[in-house]
Amino acid sequence: MLWVKAFHIIFVVSWFAGLFYLPRLFVNHAMATEPAEIARLKLMEGKLYRFVTPIAWLALGFGMWLWLGYGFSGGWLHAKLALVLVLIGYHYYCGRLVKQFAAGKNTRSHLFYRWFNEIPVLVLVAVVILVTVKPF
Ligand code: HEM
């Protein structure tokens, strides 16, 4: 089980690297005016999203393996899974934003994306407390 948990944590950390960095690119993109910079940001956003999506599924796959393979249960896991659904929704909304930026159709300000960037931080804090402290 410890090997499964080790890979679960490795892929969770890698997923979050993408979830922290991609909205930061959106902040810069929403402020960018130079065509060369805009083209570079479009390239980086597309590559990062395509790279981090399979990693997200590996993190979730190893989590499911832990849950279903080793009989974990409890209120903490249900609360965690609810937050994981929020995270999956956030991930795929980022995918829609990548397409909007690529089409030059972004309508939101850099300020919106600075606040948007904080959502995964809140989810991470809550999930790590739930899974390590198991408060209920
Ligand atoms: C389908 C989604 C997921 C499932 C079913 C799942 C399930 C689990 C289970 C059963 C454990 C073992 C708990 C224990 O050993 O006490 C675990 C460990 C862990 N999970 Fe997940 N997880 C999922 C997604 C996530 C996500 C998105 C995060 C990060 C935000 C995360 C962070 C962690 C951490 C840090 C541990 C190690 C806890 C420890 O060693 O005490 N998991 N997960």
Q: What are the key terms here?
A:
single chain, 136 residues, mainly alpha, 5 helices, 0% strand, binds protoporphyrin IX containing FE
Fold and architecture overview:
- The chain is an all-alpha fold and 136 residues long.
- It has one domain (2-133).
- It has helices at residues 2-31, 35-69, 75-102, 110-116, 119-133.
- The mean pLDDT is 96.
- Residues 5, 8-9, 12, 59-60, 63-64, 66-67, 72, 84, 87, 124, 127-128, 131-132 line the site of protoporphyrin IX containing FE.
What helical percentage do the residues reach? over 70%
Largest sheet: none
> How many domains in all?
1
Order of helices and strands: HHHHH
| Total count of strands | 0
The number of helical runs is 5
Low-confidence sequence ranges: none
| Radius of gyration from CA coordinates | 17 Å
User: What would you call the structural class?
Assistant: mainly alpha
Overall spatial form: elongated
Whole-number mean pLDDT: 96
Report the bound ligands by name, code or SMILES: protoporphyrin IX containing FE
Question: Alpha-carbon distance between the termini?
Answer: 23 Å
- Please indicate the percent range of residues in DSSP E strands (runs of 2 or more): under 5%
Kindly summarize this structure in a few lines.
With 136 residues, the chain is mainly alpha-helical. Helix content is 85%, strand content 0%.
Q: What order do the helices and strands come in, and which of them pair?
A:
Blueprint: H1 2-31, H2 35-69, H3 75-102, H4 110-116, H5 119-133
Helix pairs in contact: 1-2, 1-3, 1-4, 2-3, 3-5
Bound molecules: protoporphyrin IX containing FE.
Protoporphyrin IX containing FE binds at residues 5, 8-9, 12, 59-60, 63-64, 66-67, 72, 84, 87, 124, 127-128, 131-132.
GO molecular function, one term: protoporphyrinogen oxidase activity
Pfam families: UPF0093 (PF03653)
Subcellular location: Cell membrane
